[in-house]
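Narrative of accomplishments. A recurring question from our advisory board has been how the design workflow behaves on a single, concrete structure rather than in aggregate. To address it, we present the structure tokens for one chain from the evaluation set, followed by the sequence designed for it. No filtering or post-editing was applied between the two.
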């Protein structure tokens, strides 16, 4: 299924506004003008602009006769549909288990599962997932000081 870009843009704008609103409860660092809420707010503002562009393109296409919703060709292929469902399942797993399990174990599981599912050899998938997970953790936890959930690794990190 493929929604008209106007619908996708509207959804993107609404989700971005919700994301920006959720950052209002993030704590500030004493003595600094920015905190963990800065990056999500910048990202949210950029996504709002992208949503506006999508809406503009979608409304233009709609005036030319494009439907609001159509079945995309990839949705008719079982393997691609299974990949889509797998990503959704992994995202839901992360959302509901991140506080208990932690970012690092879930990110490793997420990346290795997707890489292997998409045909990457297991040892390359594992090496890439380890490097990617620790790079992302270092970037957000150390440089941006975003408190990522530690979960099972709380006593180690």
């Amino acid at each position: 299924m493929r929604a008209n870009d106007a619908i996708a843009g509207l959804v993107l704008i609404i989700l971005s506004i919700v994301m920006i609103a959720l950052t209002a409860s993030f704590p500030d660092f004493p003595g600094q003008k920015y905190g963990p809420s800065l990056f999500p707010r910048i990202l949210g503002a950029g996504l709002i602009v992208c949503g506006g562009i999508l809406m503009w393109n979608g409304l233009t296409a709609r005036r030319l006769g494009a439907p609001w919703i159509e079945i995309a060709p990839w949705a008719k292929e079982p393997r691609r549909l299974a990949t889509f469902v797998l990503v959704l399942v992994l995202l839901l797993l992360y959302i509901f288990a991140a506080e208990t399990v932690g970012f690092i174990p879930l990110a490793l599981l997420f990346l290795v599962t997707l890489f292997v599912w998409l045909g990457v050899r297991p040892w390359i998938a594992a090496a890439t997932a380890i490097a990617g997970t620790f790079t992302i953790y270092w970037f957000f936890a150390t440089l941006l000081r975003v408190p990522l959930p530690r979960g099972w690794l709380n006593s180690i990190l």
